[in-house]
Amino acid sequence: MAGASLLTLIDDIATLLQKVSLMTQMAAKKTAGVLGDDLALNAQQVTGVSADRELPVVWAVAKGSAKNKLILVPAALAISSFLPWAVTPLLMLGGAFLCYEGCEKLLHSWLHRHDKSEEIDLEALANLDMASFEKEKIQGAIRTDFILSAEIIVISLGTVAAESFGMQLAVLTGISVLMTIGVYGLVAGIVKLDDLGLYLSQREGLQRQLGFGILKLAPYLMKALSSLGMLAMFLVGGGILVHGIAPLHHWVEHLAHDLPALLAWFVPSLTNLVTGLLIGSVLVALHLAVDKLRGKSPAH
Length: 300
Fold this sequence. Notes:
The chain is mostly helical.
């Protein structure tokens, strides 16, 4: 009898684990788009860090991301259980912040481009506090990760909304672990791509040619990821805002439904991008106006 009970328990556990695995796969498929944006954003966030500090920065952001999820998973479960109406407004606040950050970065890039003709301040460059610069990079990446992680967790929660609390907890935990390891493992690989190219370029034959090819490609890839990361801020932030405005969301869905496959993808993405740019621009303009009223100069 004891042996039969043990076998039954093992079978029940195996069935439960299989169900958790299937539900986690479903949630991962639904969040694949956001995960792609998360990858681009985080790879972009560590650009500008010295080569020997790239992996420590990625590791610091990964630890911050893990802490984010330790906060977000129980918070999402609690809000979903007791304050389900608050999920969308909180996500929209996060989306608006992403749009604001994206526009602020665009403004900074524009100001920087117009300052290129000025003489470089060598003294300021020499006195640049790299530790503070690195810390600022890490904090910015962790803030961005918090918003993206929140969206992924809420999407995943929606996939298992009808399941038991234990199943919801297992799936959200699984998604969080997979997302953290997957995204930051890939980010670490991307930022060290040039080291791989250098190593292969010192070999012989095909490996040498491949190494030189990687060394040529790596700078363009990082520039592309930097641009994609900024674009992702508007796409993700605008997407959250559009989804939270029910009439606009339903109108976009209805419009895309009758379009060919490529346009059906393009129209919602364009709507998200335009919404993100508009909301971000308004928030940056308000911030600058408040700073001006308080007698502060705009951030450079």
